[in-house]
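Appendix B. Raw example, untouched.
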Amino acid sequence: RNRLAQKIKTLGGTGNLPVQLSNVLSYSYDANGNLTKIVSSDPNGVNVSYEYDALNRLIAVNDAHLGCTAYNYL
């Protein structure tokens, strides 16, 4: 449960995870370890970016298919 099935490579803040034989998900992280992007090698697949404020709080999620969601903190 909640185990990583296969880890291909982590290098310079990016990683790749095969989803299907013809589809690879690429993950990117910033210097603070925050996930900044998930991109699929399939043009119709996942393409999501994440933005954080100076306190490393998630402030926006930009999805190529669903649009942008913004988060505010009080």
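End of appendix B.
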